[in-house]
Amino acid sequence: MELSGRVALVTGASGEGMGRSIALTLAREGADIVVNFKQRRERAEVVAQAIEAMGRRALVHQADVADADAVQAMVAVAEKHFGRLDIAVGSAGGSWQPRDLPEIDPDHWRAVQAEEVDAAYALLRAALPGMRERGWGRIVLIGGYRADEWRAGPPEAPLDYPLGKAARHWLVRTLGPRELAHGVTVNAVAPGPIEYVTLEQARRLVEGDAEASDEPTPQDAAEAVAFLCSERASFITGAVIPVVGRKEV
Ligand SMILES: NC(=O)c1ccc[n+]([C@@H]2O[C@H](COP(=O)([O-])OP(=O)(O)OC[C@H]3O[C@@H](n4cnc5c(N)ncnc54)[C@H](OP(=O)(O)O)[C@@H]3O)[C@@H](O)[C@H]2O)c1
Prior knowledge:
Structural class: alpha/beta
Shape: globular
Number of strands: 7
Largest sheet: 7 strands, parallel
CATH architecture: 3-Layer(aba) Sandwich
Number of domains: 1
CATH topology: Rossmann fold
CATH class: Alpha Beta
Oligomer: single chain
CATH superfamily: NAD(P)-binding Rossmann-like Domain
Order of helices and strands: EHEHEHEHEHEHHE
Bound molecules: NADP nicotinamide-adenine-dinucleotide phosphate
Strand content: 5-15%
């Protein structure tokens, strides 16, 4: 187990997608986990129970990742509860339908940028000081495959969501090399479309006890995150790693 004794916070760990699989995978590797959610506490508690069944400690914490004060408070609670925070994974996000630009009203535009850009800023701002002080840290943001390139996409391609993902990639590429001096790496995993799985499927995938799939599952993104959080990736920083299905290439 590569992450024994580490403490990881995973935002948006209560869903059916990547956040939950990332939380379970970091727990499999030995980390204790802060399970963040926004609305569905009961789902977050089920994830925490699954983590505890693996022999790790889990703390369920409600916070809207777009609220910088709430994220700051969440990191403070995690550091107080576990004595440290070594890993922060920004996975929380909504599922946004593409809209033509004149159809994007200001509230929708702000909501997308709040969850994508403000949330990334809030997590970095809250997590970096403690990691720098301890001289070790891993931050992984979930980006989006080809978000930087979608300007060449078809007219129906979304505009607001990839802008937010591209901003995450920019933050990672800019901050990653700077933070290495503090022993902290900052990277992104950039998936293409990935289908949700049931909790049972997620558990089996984490244990490597599932049939091979032709398309990526949330576990494929989770394995990339776990690698970036390991000692093996100590000098990998500022990277945006695609996790992509064959149909997307
Ligand atoms: N699925 C894909 O095809 C795909 C492709 C590329 C990138 N991504 C990115 O991957 C990440 C995970 O998405 P996913 O599709 O796999 O679904 P997911 O992990 O099930 O994500 C939903 C989770 O995010 C939480 N959440 C949403 N808004 C939040 C907020 N403001 N504050 C705190 N938590 C919040 C939800 O909590 P509650 O349920 O409690 O509200 C839930 O736990 C997202 O950043 C998404 O943009 C997904």
